[in-house]
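Progress against Task 2.4 (sequence-to-structure conversion) is shown through the following example record, which the project officer requested during the mid-term review.
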Amino acid sequence: VKISTQPVFMEMIADTSKGAGATGMAAASSSNLIQDIRKAFVALATDVTAANPANQVALMEFGQASITIVKSTSKMADLEKGINKLFPKPGADSVLSEAIVQAANDLEKAAGPRRIIMILNIEPGIEASREDPKALNDALKKSGASLWAVSLQQGPLKNPMHDVVLLALATNTGGRREVLVGQSAMINQLKQYWAQISSQYEVTYTRPAGTPTQVRVGLRAEGVKISEGKLRSLLP
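Structure tokens generated for the chain above:
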């Protein structure tokens, strides 16, 4: 058992639908949400690229269509430039499901096992993509990626499936999903996620003499939690 030193491959997914433009809020604050999304992703990308020069980060948006803004790179300057190009699309609905599938397909080609999908989405939002939840789960399972989501709740849910699907996908893949009510907390939440990801351990199982009848995984230390979804994806 040791702290993992393998590089991280991360897809950051930003909400640029009309929710990111703070529809229904005062005009003076209409750009605040996208500014906070930018700041949060710049802070996260800075930490990820500084932690290991082999770490790779990509950036996508999902307003009206899922679009890759920055391909996988370790260059913070390129990531910051791409993040600052994020703008809300006033008439655009969310296609978060489509973006998750695309990110999973991209990460399936990554040259290492530590694959992360990091989402920032704004609620309320109308989901325009029609991907079946099982298809999302299958795509993530095939990619080996874990899903981490931060949802900023600005009003009543227009698509309750966001709650159900994001929580289920995060749980099944060993990630996390948190709902915030204040955009100022997004940076700290992403930093908490990264602290957890960067503290991952590598556990190597070796086969003992004879034929083992059972593999048992457990913990003796108090206050320590196993991400069971990730374990299920690694063990037969």
